[in-house]
Amino acid sequence: MDSTVTVLVITAVVVAALLLAVAVGLLVRLVRTRAALRRAGLPTGPRWVFWGAVLYLVLPTDLLPDPVYLDDIGVLLLALRSLRAARPLPYGTIEP
User: Fold this and answer.
1) Cα(63)–Cα(25) distance, integer angstroms
2) d(CA 87, CA 82)
3) Number of CB atoms found within 10 A of residue 50's CB
4) 21-43 core/surface letters (b: 16 or more CB in 10 A; e: else)
5) Mean pLDDT of all residues belonging to the chain
6) Rounded CA gap, 17 and 61, in Å?
7) Three-state DSSP class for residue 33
8) pLDDT, tens digit, for every residue of 25-59?
9) What would the pLDDT profile of 13-30 be if each residue is shown by its tens digit?
10) Among 14, 26, 56, 70, which is most buried by a count of CB atoms within 10 Å?
11) How far apart are CA 81 and CA 88, in angstroms?
């Protein structure tokens, strides 16, 4: 093989390994988030909104083209807001 091809193959393997490591890290975080949502005692509705927002983030179809992430950010912010609004407050706590 030519040295240029060898360098390209090695670079592709390293990039693929890094992407796999990032994907595994994100998967672990999602599983931990799922467990935290279950332990928090939230109603089912806000949890479904959160997972729908995560699904919208990873799906290739968007309302706006992918270089503009405003729609993704907006959907995630709305989901997080619904989770915050549905969270159970400790007894005697007053919402500001």
Assistant:
1) 27
2) 9
3) 20
4) eeeeeeeeeeeeeeeebeeeebe
5) 76
6) 26
7) helix
8) 877 887 787 777 777 766 667 777 778 887 887 77
9) 999 888 888 878 877 887
10) 56
11) 14
The helix (H) or strand (E) run that includes residue 81 is helix 70-86
User: What backbone torsions phi and psi does residue 61 show, to the nearest 5 degrees?
Assistant: -90, 135
- Residues sharing a CB contact under 8 Å with residue 48, sequence separation 6 or more, in sequence order: none
| Residue, of 68 and 48, whose pLDDT is higher | 48
Phi then psi dihedrals of residue 46, to 5 deg: -65, -30
Asked if the model's pLDDT at residue 96 lies above 60, the reply is no
Is the full-model pTM beyond 0.70?
A: no
* Longest CA span, the chain: 72
In one-letter notation, the amino acid at residue 70 is L
Instruction: Please report the sign of the dihedral spanned by the C-alpha atoms of residue 79, residue 82, residue 88, residue 91.
Output: positive
